[in-house]
Fold these 3 entries.
Entry 1:
Amino acid sequence: MALPKYTQLHYRIWHYFYIFICSCVFIFLIAPLFVIFPLSFNAEEFLVFSEGMKNLDPDAFSLRWYKDMIYGTKNPWGLAAKNSFIIAIFATLGSVLLGTVAALGLSSRHMPFKGFIMATLISPMIVPLIISGVAIFFFMAKAGLAASHTGIILAHIILGTPFVVITVTATLSGFDHSVTRAASSLGSNPVNTFMKITLPLILPGVISGGLFAFVTSFDEVVVVLFLAGLDNTTIPIQMWTGLREQLSPTILAVATCLIILSTLILVTAELLRRRSERLRGINR
Amino acid sequence: MSAELKQILTTDGIPLEISLKRAERKNKIKAFLLVAPLLFFLMITYIFPIGDMLMRSVDDKMVTNMLPNTFKSMENWDGTEMPSEEIFEAFYIDFQKLVEEKREGKLSTQLNYTKNGFKSIIKKLRRKSKTFEEGNYKEQIMAVHRRWADIDYWRAIKRHAPSYTTSKYLKGIDMYKNEEGKIVSVEEDRRIHRVLWLRTLEIAFFVTLLCFLMAYPIAYLLATIPMKYSNLLMICVLLPFWTSLLVRTASWMILLQQQGVVNDFFVMIGLVADDNRPEMMYNKTGTYVAMTQILLPFMVLPLYSVMKTISPSLMRAGKSLGGTPFVTFWKVYFPLTIPGIGAGCLLVFILAIGYYITPALVGGASGTLISNQIAFHMKSTLDWSFASAMGLMLLTGVLAIYWVYNKLVGIDNIKLG
């Protein structure tokens, strides 16, 4: 954003003021995430920067909260992490399967009541989570699935499918249908055509939808609060309880791990998006 | 012409028009069958349960079924004077049956929602009714507690006679049907729900406004600077977007606490005294700050995707025609970004109005929203029909905005990342 030499003074001032404002907003967005890093290595039990930390004294830093997270007595994080991953993986598989198939139907130009059906399929993303939570709880209680992994997985499939539907329909919007027709004319059956032609082309969209579904499930707490029993505790549930009762540095150690995980997911999603745009011939 | 068209036959000898229609129908069914699994799954596990909430919110069969004789004998009672002996006797019979089945506690909970004070007098009635003598139940029941002799309590019972009720919805906006059947507001100091609705709208509105004011400059920056810089800065927007909601809330709890970084900073620059650090968490401020940061990416992304499509030559043309940078921006650039503003604002508003986690953690008592009240009734008071009623009132509002969003932006134009 270099300014031309002839720029008048007051525009110059305005320009630097504008850059200053933007920097402030960026700091506001990203800085909160970086507070967690140093504090999770705090040697003390308080959630403030100690004098030693401010002076970069090595003794003020320790890994004790990470040790507590992994080896601590009666610590719930191991079970919670296991549950979270199991639930998120199955919920992602379910969402991707149902969502991709539905997106294929939705992007067909023969689809009847397209707008209405699309709005219905996206609704779990729009309806406030607390309402979804209440409704799903009523259903699961009736179906006898409350306080079970199955119930939570089904609930997360409901919440995850809108993301898959959106990303896959977006990928399909630039899809050249003549390639599938070419495949059919060469004697391929529909299933084979889908597996060999369509799927590889829309795969980036499918995977990025899957990532959204995974993150949604992995981070979901409202619905699980209604559904979970003691055996189904997840990482978000443990964090929620911890944050409500007492903010311990162990939570910050967990949070740091989660930030690293989300960075990995972000990088994957970005790479996929670029690949998808290249495949669809969108050059930027 | 049309007669000639009908003459065209396919190789099978079927008129072309019919054959086309058949193929079309086949394609339609094919497309629908692909959508069907998800649609039916959602119908059963999601849409119908929301309908079930509607039933629960108006359902009042529980009390109706618990006091069948009472309501039958009450049919002709107009509520102007104390009920007759006949009604008291019917009530006694129903009550004895409930005590036998140990269900009188449920009755007292339900009646207590309608009128406070039922809990204790029903307990008392259960104790005393063991020693009741046959006949003259009116006097015996009235002697148990003076409230049993109060006509208002009998009117409250009568209000439960229909199987369906709108009382939960009225309660949601702090109104009730009084003894004469008129709909009136509760006393001024007990209007907690109206305060909550207004606060929810207020916070959602200002969070949307704050998000817009912060997102517009950075979206513009992202859309106008060279690709290699914007990719880097985009990470600042996307990383919070992908990070766990609880992690972000936790970081705000650390930042905003009294000994936290933000307060330290204020003390350092001399804005506040060290011994007079302001309370920035467990109140509205906390809710505003945390919600704005959490929802900001949802505003930046739609704005960015619209701004990206605006050609920079338009601004250059405006300037070359003599507009100052500000005028060109206001007259040329800004109007073109309105679709993005609409999309972002509606999305953020919809998300903000139903927010639960963040207000519950950093909001304290003065920063909680309607969602928190719903959760409270689901988990603590167990008044599920009231929670359902409030949930549906919120849902109606959200669906109205969703409808507008769909008309203006189109639901398939939602962009993710």
Entry 2:
Amino acid sequence: MRIFDTKVQHLKYKVLREVARHAWDDTLLQAIPDIPKDIVPGNKPTMRCCVYKERAILAERVKLAMGGNKENKNVIEVIDIACDECPASGFEVTNTCRGCLAHRCEDVCPKGAISFDEHQKAHIDKDKCIGCGMCARVCPYSAITRNRRPCENACKVKAISMSKNTETKEAVIDESKCIACGACVYQCPFGAISDKSYILDVIDMIKKSNKNQNYKVYAIVAPSISGQFRYAKLGQVISGIKALGFFTVVEVALGADIVADREATELAEKGFLTSSCCPAFVDFIKKQFPAMVEHISHNLSPMGAIAEYIKKGDPTAKVVFIGPCTAKKMEVQQERIKPLVDSAITFEELQALFDSKDLDITSMEEDVLDNASYFGRIFARSGGVADAVQQALKEHGEKDFVLKALPCDGIEACRTALLKASKGILQENFIEGMACLGGCIGGAGCLTHGEKNKAEVDKYGREALEKNIGDAIRLTKIGK
Amino acid sequence: MKITICIGSSCHLKGSRQVIERLQQLIAQHGLEGKVELGGTFCMGNCQNGVCVTLDEAPFSLSPQTVDSFFETQVLTKIS
């Protein structure tokens, strides 16, 4: 069975795996210059113009696998030499143009950018075109199309543009707009945009723990893991994580139960809230809707909540988040989260870590993972937070407050909801915002993105021992 | 006196919630709220023998059925 969706992910994985392999052996420093050649041996190029360019790009990927440029705070970076500088020509007339008489395109163009050749076929003057798209909309043959770069298309916060440098037209990220959702990382067909990796920090933490004797290293895993690592059983993945050297594995979904419980209380008190689970959504509000910031739930994310609980009981613990999300790598840098979560890695990176130690998880015994309730687990998919808050309100016996939730997945849906809310015309009183389509199961750090993932999350939810939120979090309330 | 109960996955599946609830009841019945402190932890490294519990560092293996006798023989005797 294929582990990854694309060859780009596979290439990134190979680099991560090799970097990790040498890090475990303490041979990384000497090996750095050789890793590109280990991955692309010989002299026949398979991806680019020549093996030398392939290796030059791999050398950049090695840097990203080792944490990337420390001066750039953003965890998403463009590998400029990997960018194919796609000819994103904007609006173009295709050969579907019939050279008709009506010339609606010409009439509607506000800048007079459209002219016709001797066959009456339309042409767009790029110097005049402002890209409004009116011509494309009115053409009866749909003969005018918009040619956009996949990265720009993927970026719904419009943070990606073409470099102003006319010689190199590589993609550039506007840091003031980027929310680190990773959509461009997953969509760029050349793998020219990548998330930085902190696997070296994690390996170092595990090694220095001296088999969890100096301190314990906890792995906290996001519930979207249920649809990942399809080639093995979830219990084997848990065994694999422990075999890497983690002391134990705890469900972030238990943090989600804690969040749902608190969110219900906060919502009933305030009357209107937006969720705070998705760091990219929260960042989006801060950057594009600053007036709405006061309505963001004050709760920690599920990751923060479970890490806080773990560290309360074990103050020297180190906590590593493993999930589908690139934005979590930004979240762990925040002042409020820094003391709680020590590092964040993705499922892609977990796969690389398994293979860096040659762990065949399919031959391992099945361990167990069961801390959370059904409701905490379904946070991984769109609509899950809303369902959980509804359940928590019910369990609290709340009678006066009636929840009207609006689950939004994808930045476009989030933007529409926030626009309405900021104008005071939103009917609902709770916006569940998730930056990725489908929710966390659509995250850029997932190995695979499939239709089945939602069903897998729901199934995993139903398998939870605890059926309601109150029972799951009762365990976390003792000793208080 | 501090009783720490493992709430990690393995012990949870073996009934750590029931163990905790029963301990809370027993503590309340005997009016020992100020004297016995309960706490939770994830994993004590003895998953095969859960539900793992420590009583002032001493390890015990409990099940929901053995909580009462544990409370009588260990907690009450040490308290009095």
Entry 3:
Amino acid sequence: MKNILNNYKVLALALVVSLSSCDSILEPQPRLDISSEFAITDKRGAEAALLGAYSELQSNNYYGLEYPAQAYLSADEADWSGSFNFYQQFDLNAIPAENSTIKSVWSQIYRVINVSNNLIDKVPAIQDRNLTDVQRQKILGEAYFLRALAYFDLGRAWGGVPLVLQPTVDKNSGKGIKRASREQTYAQVLADLEQAELLLPALTVRSRASKEAVWALKARLYLYQQNWEKAEAFASLVLNSGKSRLVQPYSAFYTGKLTEESILELVYDNADRNSHANYWLTSSRGGRYEWKPSAGITQDLRNPAVGGSRSALIGSQVNNGSETVYGQKYTKVATGEDGAFILRIAEQYLIRAEARLKRNNLAGGLADLNEVRKRAELQPFVTADLNAALLAVEQERKVELAFEGHRWFDLIRTGRAAAVLGIADANKFLFPIPNSEILADPDLGPEDQNPGY
Amino acid sequence: MQKPRTNRFVQLLLSLGLVLVTGIAAIAQGTLTKGVVKDAKTGEPLIGARVQVKGTDKGTVTGIDGSFNLPVEQGQTLVISSLGYTLKEVKVAGESVNVALQEDTKALSEVVVVGYGTQSQKAVSSAVTSVNPSELKGIPAPSPDQLLQGKASGVQIAAASGTPGGGIFVRIRGNTSINASNEPLYVVDGVFINNQSLSGLSLGGQTTNPLADLNPADIESIEILKDANATAIYGARGANGVVLISTKRGKTNAGTKINFQTYAGIAKAPKIFETVNAQQEAELINETFINDGGNPTLVPFRPKSEGGLGLPEEQTTYSRIPDVFQTALTQSYDLSASGGGESNRFFLGGGYFKQEGIVKPAAFERFSGRFNYDHLVNNRLTIGTSTTVSYSRRNQSRNDNSAQGVINSALYVPTYLPVYNQDGSYARHSIFDNHLALIDNLNIKGESSRLITNLYGEYELVDGLTFKSSWSLDYNNYADKVYNNTQISVGLPAGNASRTDTRLVSLLNEQLLTYNKRFGNDHFLNVLLGNTLQQTKYNTLSLTGRNFPSDDFQEIASSSLQTGSTNSSQNGLVSFFSRAGYTYKDRYSVDGSVRADASSRFGAANRWGIFPSLGTSWIISEEAFAQDLPFDLIKLRANIGLTGNQNGINDFASLGLWRAGRNYDGLPGISHQQLANPDLKWETTRQWNIGLDLALLQNRLKFEANYYNKYTKDLLLEVPVAAKTGFSSVFENLGEISNKGVELNIASTNIERDDFTWTTSLNVARNVNRIEKLPIPINQHSRDWVRMEEGGSVYAFWVYKQLYVDPQTGDAVYDDVDKNGVITVADRQIVANAAPDFFGGLNNQVNYKRFDFGALFYFEYGNDILNLNRFFMEHGGTRNGSITFLPGQLDRWQQPGDVTDIPRLTRFGNNYNLPSSLYIEDGSFLRLRSVTVGYTVPTELLNRYKVANLRLYVSGTNLWTLTNYSGLDPEVNVAGDNQNVRGIDHAVVPQPRTFQAGLNVTF
């Protein structure tokens, strides 16, 4: 009997040992993550979240590849030469609403917006004496800028979109927000830029938003809105700030990093890699050659009278007697360090040139145009015809801003897409709302899809 | 196209099934012998005892007074048997025979292994399939799961590819989940082992199989628990079935036995890919050019003098495909010692296995050891261990859905493009690598180290009451080591390397209290009570290096750009469980179990899940009224229960999280990661099962049937949310799935003589899966080829249905579902499914004198395959110059009046730019999975070498396959890494055909 009692003691002991460890077994803490409520509660958290917003902006689903790619594939800059037919669909201007790139870009842009919304919502209330007012304003200013950029990119590609301005806390957040019009979307962009303009200091670091970046984006926004006067005024503010200049030679701004050319350039490194080079380069250069420069742009860039020193953008290799051309604006496949050139000074010259021409200032317009041509080692363009000058700006934008994702939106905003790209169906000038979004968002019905999809 | 084949298929199955019955017919002949069979103890006559003439089919059953009449020749032997009695043999001398049978106490204790113990065979009310691993010899598979194919009804097993050590699909009674796991729980000697691939590499869709760490030669038995009453004792992990693996142990008082087994073999691809030749390709490209409005004088393949690539007939065809296939070698060696003294028993074994892949350069190699030991400290206390260690190495390569794949780079590249450049260097084309460069330079290694060990002490407290405590560890360490030199495109421009070490450690502690007691003759009670604590920790450490000084340096330390990263996570389960069973008169049984599990993955409010089950069985054949029926056994079983599932979701799925590592410009950043759902809880599966077991003709024909009905609710579903929130999905308990099915098992002893036996078994199962509730459809795979939607089932292909090709225009005509005149996404529909309508196996085993012969057929019927090779290579011109064509493209429409399925070549429009039903094929197949012929050497010849037993054998696998599928092999799945995708063929390594020879010797 005593034996049995002893045995039960052993049993009881084993049970006690096992039960006492239950709590530690059942309540492990995540290691890579923190709970939402602890994010953005102090200065370091706010700074980290702001960096996180830039990280989302530089994602390969946004500026690291796909946003510019969907624009230059849709225009006449690049031809698809790979195996992913979801990219081919842009090249053919036949994008189904299930296209996976459309979905990933749309979702990624809203990731930038949600992080910005969190910052805009939480930073003003942070109680941390290490956070000075100047720092607080700068963080908020950058958040407003990033949200403006995100909505601008949505607006020009898809038209009006749902304007979510509050941070997401649970799955019901954002309920009831339907598609706004493009005008409302651009108005929101402008409102955020006004805020950012008040809060942001002058440019010191080209990889971060600054007052000059706000002006530059405002100039572009006004250009898209055909508000020529304001476009000219804000481009002038940027050009006159002296913070940026056209670098020599042309290739210097993309072979270098954060050169004086840039007003806002996203930087990439070995850990945060830009994917562009992989898609542009041939397999013998370590790429997958998913697309290549179109025959038209190759011809333009190689034409000494049109491309000038921008012929450097076209690479060439000869195998077994046949030539393969490839684009080489993005070539740092080993390090992944190619930049994303969101705002640079050459565009500001061309914005002002176009705005001045639209305001019948032929001499002023040509002067700005020829600044850009001069850097490309070209002769000044001379004409007395305003329309010819405007066409020259269009052509200059094509070669100067090649492979950066401008031309598609330029041709659409100027009404020239049908004529230049030969797209008869004007519905194709807006991308489709992702089909998955129409399914997942109760505020979007089939009737909210862009027409023609 | 499908119909005639269907009939042939069914006919063949039926004719094979008939084999079962033919051996059984018995014809009575000879002089009449009379006799009486009595109970030896009581002297009462035995009713329904079977009397059989040994070595023949002749037999009868005793009547109400225990008597029988049977025509028997003098000198023949009668075999007399009755359920619950020891079988007895009597030689016939004279005209009457009186036999007394002893009650068989052993028969009453005949047991089956179930969760946490054993149950009396008679009392089991569950659907449990036992597989005897000795039947599995002859298939050179590295992992035990693959050997079960065709052996267990209702268990669908298919290799995703022919890569050695690669992922295996195992599904017991259908898919119960979409985002949580569908894999069964594997329990080896009481240890819950990890079954998730720990390799962090993405090699095109295939995974590694962690069960390949186990040496099949160590396995004594495998039981598959299928229904809720069997699995509810595993509660939160039971919903997808449980596979119990017991390894070999020694025998007490048995001396020491040394066993050596080995085999070696070769493997080849039964069929390799074929493409068009260069001239045909050039003609197709020219035709596309002209069809698309090009100037016929400017076609790409025109004379070089005119600036073209040369005329089609001037093109050289460069052959690549044969280069990537090889005749692969397999070798296996196992040496073991087992035995025991009075107070101990042991099994000590070591094994080596190496298998090459049929597509270069792939190989799997394993070193394994096992030590099982039990020691009887005194007549109440036993202590022991089950321990296995193994180290496996994989040489891997990319294939499948990877442009850098070996098969891809040989198969897809245009045939008119040369393999080498003029300067002799490897030529690369389009997005593809050079296949020879890949074969020579791929350097992707996987190393798995595994320790599975269990230590236990078992003490009999009082008679029938036993306490057992065991402590277990499953330690997995998996290292991925990749070095890409500059000869292959992923290594450009200066080489890169990566290494990821993943460690998964699972600790388990278990207490068990069992009570088994027979009260009097009629009552038998068994009770079990236990608890377990389990903690699983997961850690990874990964390093990458880029920019190497030359191709001679491979260590990350030699590179100039290095990055590192770590990850870790953990989860825990606390469980209490109990089972009780009661049997009355060995005839009526009820049993039930309940388990309560608490998981760290859920919030405190939903942490506990309770999983009960209840079952009952009735052995009708024991009843007096059934004694006249010609059955040795009639048993009815029924049970119902609940099981849970929480595997496969991340460890912190219920929390709202922000993640670090979202860095910018070298500075640390954070951003939102996951939406909170504090209400998250278990998936719950309710399953009921009814079964019927029959045995007749003196147990020579056995029949088992099960009908099951599973209904899973509260699916742990990654529900898409509007992207405008910044999130893509949230885990919610939404959605319901049902699985209903039947399983049939027939086992027959067709011939049973001293020197000649022939047994046949057939199993067939059908599972019907239905997604009962799903808030929104979920698409899978690139281009959304697969869709799960309410009312549909898993593995459904979602495509534009091509109705026909217009003979006038040559354009594909698609089903315009919404009749709006244009083909849009609204016209996509589900047209086919990769899950089979039914599947099963047919096994024949013949022993004649010293020869043994085995043949196993496996079949799946009604499964569809999406042939993505055709999608990419019957591209109609859309991929001209970057991807060549399959010969099927030659059947394209060319001129008005042509009637064909293959549309006119064009880069534009819908002919070739849509995910079309054109590429979906019937994937039904019947395969001779394995054939084995063995010979056991007579002991007289062996005695002087002190050899107790020696068997030599040769075997072959996949020698013959009947299928209508146009690809290389119908057992194929490009997405081994996605449980919601099956049956997609895309540059997958085919199943090899193998031949091997082996020997098994015991000293």
